[in-house]
Amino acid sequence: MEPISDHLRENLDVIFVGFNPSIRSSETGHHYANPNNRFWKILFEAGITPRKYDSSEDYQLLDLGYGMTNIVARPTKAADEITKEEYQQGKLELRSKIEKFSPKIVCFVGKGVYQQYSGNKDIPWGKQEEPVVAGTVDFVAPSSSGLVRMKMDEVVGIYKELPLLIDHIIFK
Predict the structure, then answer these.
(1) Helix, strand or coil, per DSSP, at residue 1
(2) Uracil-DNA glycosylase-like domain location, by residue (predicted)?
């Protein structure tokens, strides 16, 4: 299985960070390609994107000011297959990407992703008090996996905070 390409550039409003690519994403070469993943629906329903994008259009989010990467590049069936060493390496690489590209906000798609990145265990949803990389805002949102047991309305409600946070940062 091949890793998939990041979609990153300097000064993005948000970089979305997932655990790692699914097998389906590796096969297609696109982020959040598993049909059970609700990422694209969540972004649309939360008002982050003007329409529901397809995973094959993932690179087009750059035009909206959004980038995409993962804490671990190796595709797996499930996140529990990721090794401690892969997380350690991924954490260093992710920090380097954030420092290089300087997004306004880094949105972690799942508490577990942020736990691995920050080393913190007790994490609230939404904006974190202290970012790992100075000059950015760390934002923790629920995983978009179909395995998440939260109601869709709750998940979308948390993601709806992102556009408000972007506006606050841009217009302050």
Answers:
(1) coil
(2) 8-152
| CA dist., res. 18 & res. 85, Å (int) | 17
For β-strands 137-141 and 105-109, DSSP reports them as parallel
The structure's pTM equals 0.96
Domain tally, the chain: 1
Using CA atoms, how far apart are residues 5 and 1, in angstroms rounded to an integer? 13
In a domain, 36, yes or no: yes
Whether 3 is in a domain gets the answer no
Residue 119 lies in a domain: yes
Query: Which pLDDT score is estimated for 172?
Result: 62
Bin 60: left if φ > 0, else alpha if -120 < ψ < 50, else beta.
alpha
- Judge whether 71 and 87 are in contact, CB under 8 Å: yes
What pLDDT was estimated at residue 78?
83
